[in-house]
Amino acid sequence: MNTGWQVELREGDIALRPIRARDQRDWQEVSRRNREWLRRWEATVPPAQPGREAGARPTFRQMTRYLRAEAAAGRILPFVLQYQGRLVGQLTVGGITWGSMCSANIGYWVDEEVAGRGIMPTAVALCVDHCFGVLGLHRIEVCIRPENVPSRRVVEKLGFREEGMRPRYLHIDGDWRDHLVYAMTVEEAPRSLLDRWRAVSSRGPNGN
Q1: For the chain, how many structural domains are there in total?
Q2: Is 80 exceeded by the pLDDT of residue 4?
Q3: Cα distance between residue 83 and residue 10, in whole Å
Q4: Which residues form the domain of 20?
Q5: Distance of alpha carbon 106 from alpha carbon 140, whole angstroms
Q6: For a 10 Å CB count at each end of the chain, is N or C smaller?
Q7: Is the whole model's pTM more than 0.85, yes or no?
Q8: Dihedral sign, Cα of residue 70, residue 71, residue 74, residue 75
Q9: In a domain, 72, yes or no
Q10: Do the beta carbons of residue 132 and residue 173 sit within 8 Å?
Q11: Are 27 and 82 in contact (CB under 8 A)?
Q12: Is the residue at 106 inside a domain?
C-alpha cells in the first residue's frame, strides 16, 4: 500500500519530510524555545478523558511511534518542516478518509524565529499539491481558532474558503475552543496551489 508519506516535498530552502525518532533533540529544542509562542494554540487533554490526566502529553518517542504507525496505515502524513536544513516546525495531515469522502485536515506550527517569511504558506501549498495530485484526495480542511490571525492569514493567502464556525470544537490551552473552518477542494486548485502561492507572494510581503 502506497500511503504517500515516505516522501520529501521541497521548494527552495523549505522542505517537508517524515518525522523520525532521531529528530528528538532538534524537535524538543524548538518546542522549548517556542513554548509560550505556541501555548495558546496547542491541543490539551480534557480532564474527563478516561485513563489520561488533564494536560498529560506523550513523550517524543511515544508521539513519533504513534504517528509513524498511523502513517503506515494510511491515516495521517506526519511531516517535520525544515528551513535551510534546520527543523523549524511540524505539519500533519490527519483524519484521512477514503471512500465517498476522500478528505483530510491539516494542522501546523512554526518556529517564531522564522515566522513571517512565507515558510508556512509554502509548506501548506506543497502538502496540498501532494494530497490532491499524488494521493488523490478531494477536500482539505484547516480548522483555526478565530484569534489566531497569523494562522488564518496562511490559508487565506492560499485561497482557502472560510466555511463557518465550529463552536467548542477542540480542547486547546485548557478549555474547549471555537474554531473557524477553512476548506479547499481539488476543483479549486486544478493545477498547483504552489504555483498560485508563488504568484501571490511575488506581488507583496510573505505571510508566515
Answers
A1: 1
A2: no
A3: 10
A4: 9-201
A5: 7
A6: N
A7: yes
A8: positive
A9: yes
A10: no
A11: no
A12: yes
